[in-house]
Amino acid sequence: MEENSKLDKIIEARMKLKARFQEKMAATPSVSDSRPMGSGEINRHGMPKLPAGQTRTVKWPVLDLGFKPDISHQQWKLVVDGEVESPVTLNWDDFMNLPQTEDISDFHCVTTWSRMDVPWIGVRLADIAALVMPKSTATHVLCHGYDQYTTNLSLEEALKEDVLLVHTADHKPLEKDHGGPVRMITPQLYAWKGSKWIKRIEFLSSNKLGFWELRGYSNTAYPWRDDRYS
After folding, report:
1. Which of 144, 194, 145 is nearest to 166 (CA)?
2. Which of 122, 149, 209, 221 could form a disulfide with 189 if both were Cys (CB 3.0 to 4.6 A apart)?
3. 2 vs 125: CA distance, rounded Å
4. Closest CA to 61 of 113, 104, 110
5. For residue 69, how many other CB atoms are within 10 A of its CB?
6. Distant-in-sequence, close-in-space partners of 117: CB < 8 Å, separation ≥ 6
């Protein structure tokens, strides 16, 4: 009964957040661009399956900063704080007790490859936001990895339903090379916007550039606009 009550509260809070940001989310290019750049069949958001300048791959190349943290489930924690009403620190069991979402989405790397139809299991970032409830002042998140990586997203991008913190990919636990035990995925943006080995989600009252954004990559990272660099 207690678990059902907790789930109901998360769903109710998520729906409030969705209503609060729905208009902004609907106006983002990944769902509203009238002239998207790309080719192939149309994806579920109305965009061409393959964005401009991308090549399909079956393999999953490994890209990182040259350091792969070795974080066990027992060591892993996720801090969610900043411009929120109720900051939390989640351990592995806390995270796994949140609503689990199964989804299939595409993964677009800025280095011009796209891996299609990847099956994922994880927790919606929107459900984590529902736990902490962003203040009215919150506009962005900055995601931090155990490798000291950071990347920024606007809340209208971060709260989309297919933005997940995943622990499973291709029907098996997420490998360390790809950011396990948990990484974020952002199917509607280039993949550098999803932190590997994620350890903190910081809600902000203004935009703050992350690691690659400070080094000349796009602040917005829209694949269907070939939006790679600032």
Report:
1. 194
2. 221
3. 22
4. 113
5. 19
6. 104, 105, 106
Domain 2-61+69-225 has CATH 3.40.50.720: no
Digits of tens for pLDDT over the chain (230 positions)? 566 777 888 989 989 998 999 999 999 999 999 999 999 999 999 999 999 999 999 999 998 998 899 999 999 999 999 999 999 999 999 999 999 999 999 999 999 999 999 999 999 999 999 999 999 999 999 999 999 999 999 999 999 999 999 999 999 999 999 999 999 999 999 999 999 999 999 999 999 999 999 999 999 999 999 999 99
- Could you give the CA distance from residue 40 to residue 64 in angstroms, rounded to a whole number? 29
Contacts of 220 (CB under 8 A, 6+ apart): 189, 227
| Packing angle, helices 125-132 and 2-26, rounded to 10 | 110
d(CA 181, CA 85): 27
SS3 49: strand
Beta bridge partners of 173: 168
Looking at the chain, the number of H-run helices and the number of E-run strands are 5, 13
Is 141 exposed, middle or buried, given 0-12, 13-18 or 19+ CB atoms closer than 10 A?
buried
Q: Where are the domains of the chain?
A: 2-61+69-225
Q: Assign 128 to helix, strand or coil.
A: helix
